[in-house]
Amino acid sequence: MTTATTPGPFRLSATDLLAGFSVALVLIPQAMAYAELAGVPAHHGLYAAGLPLMFAAICASSPFVQTGPTALTSLLAFGALTTIAEPGSQAYIGLAALLALAVGVFRTLIGLLRAGVVSYLLSQPVLRGFTAAAGLLILASQVPAALGIVGVGDSVLARALDALAQPQHWDMFSLGLTGLTLILMIGGRRVHALFPGVLCAVVGGLVLGHLFGYQGPTLGPIPDVVFPPLSLDLPWSRVGEVLVSGAVIAVVGFAEVASIAQTYAERSGRPWNPNREFISQGLANLAAGLASGFPVGGSFSRSALNRLAGAKTRLAGAVTGLTVLVFLPFGELLQTLPRAILGAIVIGAVLGLLKPGPLLLLWRQSPAQALVGYATFILTLLWAPHIEYAIISGIGIAVAVHAWREQAVEVRANCCGDSLTLSPSGVVWFASAPKLRQAMATHLANRPDIEVLVVDLQAVGRIDLTGVLALRELFESVDIGQIRVVGVPDHAQRIVTRILPKYLHLPTAQTSAPGKIPQTRKNSQPSL
Q1: Which of 105, 146, 288, 368 is most exposed, with the fewest beta carbons within 10 Å of its own?
Q2: pLDDT band, very low/low/confident/very high, at 358 (cuts 50, 70, 90)
Q3: How far apart are CA 92 and CA 89, in angstroms?
Q4: Given pLDDT bands bounded at 50, 70 and 90, which one contains residue 381?
Q5: pLDDT at 385 over 90
Q6: Total domains in the fold of the chain
Q7: Domain region containing 460
Q8: Is residue 257 a contact partner of residue 281, using CB atoms and an 8 Å limit?
Q9: Both 79 and 216 in a single domain?
Q10: What percent of the chain lies above the pLDDT cut of 90?
């Protein structure tokens, strides 16, 4: 696929207009549903779906990533704020905007410092465990709304179980609307990838609710505004309470963006830049905070729709945001929309996260990594709503498992006459250096009569300062005629040359067999 005819980044095409408008029809109800998931009034979802998308288009490197409210980012925001303010209150709304600004600052700084590689800190086991648990929590949070009742409990799972345990109180109309919405969303995609299932569900719900006099929970009053209320009158004195969560959301939420951009870059042959995407997402969140919104990220479903609808440049996202802004004055038309439909929209969007296969498959691929994934899954459920703690813990467990596995160092020995060649393999770093020295000392103790020691480092994957110092201390503690270091990998040349210069093998003698090295008197070393 060639890119010669691809429009420039600021050349709007007809397909960009179509794609942007198509995504907006899905985004408007989704944004309102995700706002409620985040704990803010539904119309604030529209504030987070207008300006942020237009700001994101300024620096985006991928033409396909659609920014805005997402289920995962909304759940992270809810977890960060629900214990420090009452969801839906003015204090909570202000903190949500402040959290968006914090996320925006962190992401923008990461991009400007060209530190986009931090997005790779999340290993696949951590991501699989977290997303599976997060999907379950999001699904559970919508169960009461889908059933038309209010669950009782101290956690999302408790309220969902309480709602499920009261079938006598289920509202059949709400349950029917939930089922109809899911049928339109899931079944519609099987009919055609561009089928507007969400839009049909919203319009159908409004019509049915009006015809049959629906008495269940609805969205309620929506302010009649022409433009999002821009303000920096935020609870700045409480910024310390959202900084850690802002940093976590900045990195964790970006995993969605990175996955989307990478997937479509591979399919389209158009590369993406993680640093630019960090800046793009940072600007979007800064705009969301300024516009009384909440943290935003990249959406898998809307990005897929954007590409299928023919998006050619990042301006398609700007068109989506502009369409939402144009719709704002007409938001009151959705006041009678049943909340059951919003709950079903969220459920339909996260069903893809509930597939247990990738998580269960980890055990066959690597039991140690499977434990990382399972631990992250369990901790996410146990620590809800503070799921950001589970992410941090998952990263810590993954690093610990990696460090534990990297401690294994093998040392093969090969004797030839009065010469002994020791060939370590693995990663030689501060945690494995003591084991390396002990293993080499054991081999030397078994051959006290050798005159030549050759240490071949060609099988060493990596060696740090502590590892090289351990080798020098070992060399200086033994009484051997000649000690030579050969096979130094390119990545270790500089550090080995600095610390072990007198032990390095002469370039002209590198082809000599270990057993053919001329013997010299004790403690003599080869000259360089």
Answers
A1: 368
A2: confident
A3: 5
A4: very high
A5: no
A6: 2
A7: 410-516
A8: yes
A9: yes
A10: 52
Residue 423, beta-bridge partner list: 412
CATH of the domain at 433: 3.30.750.24
Each residue's pLDDT tens digit, 19-65: 999 999 999 999 999 999 999 999 999 999 999 999 999 999 999 99
Hey, what amino acid is at 353? L
Residue 425 β-bridge partners: 410
pTM here? 0.79
**422 φ, ψ to 5°?**
-110, 125
Alpha-carbon distance values, 119 to 55, 111, 387, 444, 446 (Å): 21, 11, 18, 45, 48
**Phi and psi at residue 336, in whole multiples of 5°?**
-95, 10
Least confident of 118-122, 173-177, 179-183, 344-348: 118-122
Phi, psi of 338 (to 5 degrees): -60, 135
Q: Dihedral through CA 423, CA 425, CA 428, CA 434, nearest 10?
A: -70
d(CA 441, CA 418): 17
Last residue of a domain, which of 323, 358, 393?
A: 358
What is the distance between the alpha carbons of residues 58 and 24, in angstroms, rounded to a whole number? 18
- Quick one: average pLDDT of 350-354? 82
pLDDT at 509: 38
Asked if 256 contacts 277 with a C-beta cutoff of 8 angstroms, the reply is: no
Which three-class secondary structure state does DSSP give residue 338? strand
Pair 67, 294: CB distance under 8 Å: no
